[in-house]
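Fold this sequence, please.
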Amino acid sequence: MSQLRGGENSNLNRDSGRNTGGNAPQRPDRRAERPLSEREIREMRARKVRKMKLMRRRRRILLLGLLAVCVLTGVLVAAVSGRVRSWKAEKAAVQAAAMQESMSASAAEAESLAAAEAEQYRANLPDMGAIYGIAVNGVGWSHFFADNSYSMAPANSYITALRATLNGQPEGMSGTIRYRVNLSGTGWLDWQENGNEAGDSAGSMPLEGIAMELTGDLATYYEVLYSVLQDSQWTEWASDGAEAGAVGVGLHVDGVRISVVKRTGGEAYAGNIDPNRPMVALTYDDGPSPTVTPRILKCLQDNGGRATFFMVGKQVIKSPDVLKQMVAQGCEVANHTFDHKDLATLDTTAIQNEVSSTNDKLNALVGHGASLVRPPYGSYNSTVKS
């Protein structure tokens, strides 16, 4: 009976286990309960090692990939930056070249414009002239002579002093004319200017040479030419301070010519007249006429010509404005006596009065007298010549 109970209990327990279903404790896995063999442990460790190696390899690959990406990115950035810099440099160079070209063009244009303006300025400059006087031994100071006139001492005499100034200097242009002389027995004296005496008008020693120049802006646009009569010959034209006349050889100055002309870059000619070109010398007598002379002056002006007018003193008094127009146009004013008398019939004093009276009138009106005399009717003798 006891066995039966026990059997029944065992069956009951087994049935209870079956009836309880999921609530009964599960039996453990027999393999988990079994200890691992060394082979299995080695295989497990090998798997872990392989797995670690694979993970490390993947990390390296990932790191290398990231590094490659960074390097490529850096290279790309550097290339792009270099290209940008190169483009900017090229753009800057193009802009600089364009600016330089523009500046060069502007500078060339400005230079060309300045040159054209300077040339236009030179072309529009008025004609100027020198006015000068000489002191003659035993006679004293002469009247002033016009530009390019022959100022000469009488026969058997000589010049002891000189003075000069300018006529028609452009307004606002700086500078003046200055000059010095070589006085016999003394040598070269100090520079004088603008009408001051150079030499010794009160003495008896002759001049042996002269030198002249312009100063200030005048020296840039104008040039002074001068020549002296020495040993019966006129010297070559000198300019810009050069010496005219042979000094220290016993010769004296018997005449002086001075002319102020524009600088053209080429050879300058006294009175702006090129002696090497064909020309016609026009002279008119007996004026000025208030009706005829203005027509002659208009014709000369229209054709770029000049003439020499031999003035009668009593006519000058009647037409002072016509006389001034002659000088303004660069014409030469000369002497045809005061009353148009036959000089060959007069004595020395009367001849001198006829000539000097006209020169006095000319000098009063235009600042200088005449260096040329034409005897009326072409009549003269030895007394008139002397």
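The longest strand covers residues 253-262. The first helix runs from residue 2 to 20.
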